[in-house]
Design goal:
Elements: E1 13-18, E2 25-30, E3 36-41, E4 46-50, E5 69-74, E6 80-85, E7 89-94, E8 100-105, E9 111-116, E10 122-127, E11 132-136, E12 142-146, E13 153-158, E14 164-169, E15 173-178, E16 184-189, E17 195-200, E18 206-211, E19 216-220, E20 226-230, E21 237-242, E22 248-253, E23 258-262, E24 268-273, E25 280-285, E26 291-296, E27 301-305
Antiparallel strand pairs: 1-27, 2-3, 3-4, 5-6, 6-7, 7-8, 9-10, 10-11, 11-12, 13-14, 14-15, 15-16, 17-18, 18-19, 19-20, 21-22, 22-23, 23-24, 25-26, 26-27
Length: about 300
């Protein structure tokens, strides 16, 4: 596989392959300090790894989910893990003990995604019941139910200041919500099929979205205006990630490629990474961009690290 160029360091190279899951790995996440890697799968297990050595931190954790686990996120301080499952629950677990700190119930469909707010006090969840929900992390209480989507909700993302939440859906729309009032701020229309991925730029001024119709779109979060339509993928998009400095956007699709787009060049595609053996389901970068982790349908996790 080609080396991956990252904005800050220039280059990272493939260093480790992690094996252990017995089903498709839906998601991976790195702790804020880049030391711990969490992964979740169809096998209903949550595995924790030492991100530097690639060794598992103890046995795989069964934190009570009774169906596929779709999403995993670390809290900003790294103490807790939130997991979303097809069993319609969200669980918040202690990273060190695996103990389920809170079980959040109320969705009436599969929960596909969760995200912590930047301050770690609120958790957002996206479900097949067409709703987005905001939860108090400390108490586990439901704060708000955001209604408006008319299809499965696929992804959620907080703005860097935590004041806005983006959600994407099979209704082909992206909605921006005021997290304080729960009111809809903007409805972004333009995608022609289900929108699977969404990500804010580090300064919160831009939003990137990717859909099954193979294009990546860039939006102005203040006005809701569409700024760019980026084409080049030949398969549905699954994952989008901004670089820490906001100059690059990486997108992964079912065409078995990752494309890197440069914002200063009008979001021109500057790199295409190939060599994958299955759909890339998740990508995560360490904050210093010394490490890039991805997982695909071959049931392994790949780690790239700087030399």
């Amino acid at each position: 596989m080609a080396d991956l160029v990252t904005p800050s360091l220039g280059k990272v190279t493939a260093s480790k392959t992690l094996d252990g899951h017995t089903g498709f790995i839906w998601d991976v996440a790195l702790s804020g300090n880049g030391q711990i890697l969490a992964s979740v799968s169809n096998d209903m297990m949550i595995r924790l790894w030492n991100a530097n050595t690639g060794l598992q931190r103890g046995a795989a954790k069964d934190n009570g989910h009774s169906n596929w686990v779709r999403c995993v996120r670390f809290s900003p301080m790294g103490r807790f893990l939130a997991t979303a499952s097809d069993d319609m629950t969200i669980r918040i677990s202690d990273v060190n003990t695996g103990f389920t700190y809170r079980m959040l119930q109320g969705h009436t469909g599969r929960v596909r995604a969760v995200e912590f707010s930047p301050d770690g006090r609120t958790l957002a969840s996206a479900s097949d019941d067409f709703t987005v929900r905001l939860w108090n992390v400390s108490s586990g209480s439901l704060l708000k139910t955001l209604n408006g989507h008319s299809g499965w909700v696929r992804a959620v993302a907080f703005s860097p200041d935590g004041k806005t939440l983006a959600s994407t859906s099979d209704d082909n729309t992206i909605r921006l919500w005021d997290t304080t009032t729960g009111n809809e701020i903007h409805r972004l229309i333009g995608h022609e099929s289900s929108i699977r991925a969404v990500c804010f730029s580090p300064n919160g001024k831009l939003l990137a979205s990717g859909s099954q119709n193979k294009d990546l779109r860039i939006w102005n979060t203040t006005s809701g205006a569409l700024l760019n339509v980026l084409q080049g993928h030949s398969g549905p998009l699954r994952v989008i990630a901004f670089s820490t400095d906001g100059n690059l956007v990486a997108s992964a699709a079912d065409d078995l490629t990752i494309r890197v787009w440069a914002a200063p060049l009008g979001f021109a595609c500057v790199r295409v990474l190939t060599g994958y053996s299955g759909w890339v389901r998740a990508i995560t970068l360490s904050r210093d961009e010394n490490m890039v982790v991805y997982t695909s349908d071959d049931m392994t996790i790949k780690i790239w690290s700087s030399a």
